[in-house]
Amino acid sequence: MQGPTSHIYFSQRLRLHYVDWGNPDASPMLMIHGGRDHCRNWDWVAEALRDDYHIIAPDLRGHGDSQWMVGGSYNQVDYVYDVAQLLRQTEMNPVTIVAHSLGGAIALLYTGLFPETVRKLVVIEGLGPPPQLVKERLEVPVADRLHAWVDDLRKLSGRMPRRYATLEDAYERMQTENPHLTEAQARHLTIHGSNQNEDGTYSWKFDNYVRTFPPVGLDFRQQYELWSRITCPTLLVRGTESWASDPLKDGRAAHFQNARVENVERAGHWVHHDRLDEFLRLTREFLAE
């Protein structure tokens, strides 16, 4: 596999990283990874689509080779601003977006804000927790939620990044986290998702503070409002073995103007890893419509 080139851009004074798969004369495509992940998790999808699209994939702030922010709150609206900056600086509008999990949530908010800039949207499990869980969280008094956030930050401030004695140990952790991964996939993700420390051990690249959920921000009603502003064709993908609920059955798909849902069997949260060929088939058919 001939890999992508590495680039830097700036957003809110942060030095952020993205990769570019070339083919600049082709239609632009943006791929956004999920939480505690990195841009090279898209390599297999990008390799398959690079002849038809000009693909770029960022490392979100606090992830991969992008700078960690000063402070403890990673808010979705800041991620959205980063995406807007990247697309503006690279002049890649209008764009097709393929995104996963946290990246999917970011893509949905961005597209709701700037619907005229997105041609098509493919989102893998980016709708967030099931509605019932969201409802339960909102029923917690705001003071309790803020207290929990303060406690979480204090715990994370003393949490050192986990260190693995060898790269093989880190790989085994990656494989355990997602047993659907092939050995080659797990090794590739481990190599690109870890750094070697000065003492020779290995740690994951992401900032531990990305584990926290901001106590304030857009509530689910505001998110639904932004989803309803999305005008482009949208493909919502879900793995049937994932924790995510079916957006058709839970009603969330109804908030979109033009969306269809695909449930992929024998796949968990990382559908593009667990069933790569099936994901590519669904995506290619959708993009060709």
Characterization of the model:
- It is a single chain.
- Helix content is about 35%, strand content about 20%.
- The protein is an alpha/beta fold and about 290 residues long.
- The chain has a domain at about 5-130 and about 215-289: 3-Layer(aba) Sandwich (Rossmann fold).
- The chain has an eight-stranded mixed beta sheet with strand order 1-2-4-3-5-6-9-10, with helices on both faces. A two-stranded antiparallel ribbon has the order 7-8.
- Helix 3 (about 100-115) links the parallel strand 5 (about 95-100) and strand 6.
- Helix 2 (about 75-90) crosses helix 3 (about 100-115) and helix 3 (about 100-115) packs across helix 8 (about 220-225).
- The protein is globular, with a radius of gyration of 18 Å.
- It starts with a strand and ends with a helix.
- The mean pLDDT is about 95.
Short description:
With 289 residues, this protein is of the alpha/beta class. The chain is 36% helix and 20% strand. It has a domain at 5-130 and 213-288: Alpha/Beta hydrolase fold, catalytic domain (Rossmann fold, 3-Layer(aba) Sandwich).
Kindly list the characteristics that best describe this protein.
10 strands, alpha/beta, 10 helices, Rossmann fold, eight-stranded mixed β-sheet, 289 residues, 20% strand, 36% helix, two-stranded antiparallel sheet
Q: Could you say what the CATH architecture of the domain at 5-130 and 213-288 is?
A: 3-Layer(aba) Sandwich
Q: What is CATH's topology name of the domain at 5-130 and 213-288?
A: Rossmann fold
Number of helices: 10
Percent helix, as a range, is 25-40%
* E-strand count: 10
Radius of gyration: 18 Å
Question: Superfamily at the CATH H level of the domain at 5-130 and 213-288?
Answer: Alpha/Beta hydrolase fold, catalytic domain
SSE run: EEEHEHEHEHHHHEEHEEHH
Strand content: 15-25%
Q: Which stretches of 5+ consecutive residues score pLDDT under 50?
A: none
Give the strand order, joined by hyphens, for the main sheet.
1-2-4-3-5-6-9-10
Which structural class is indicated by helix and strand composition? alpha/beta
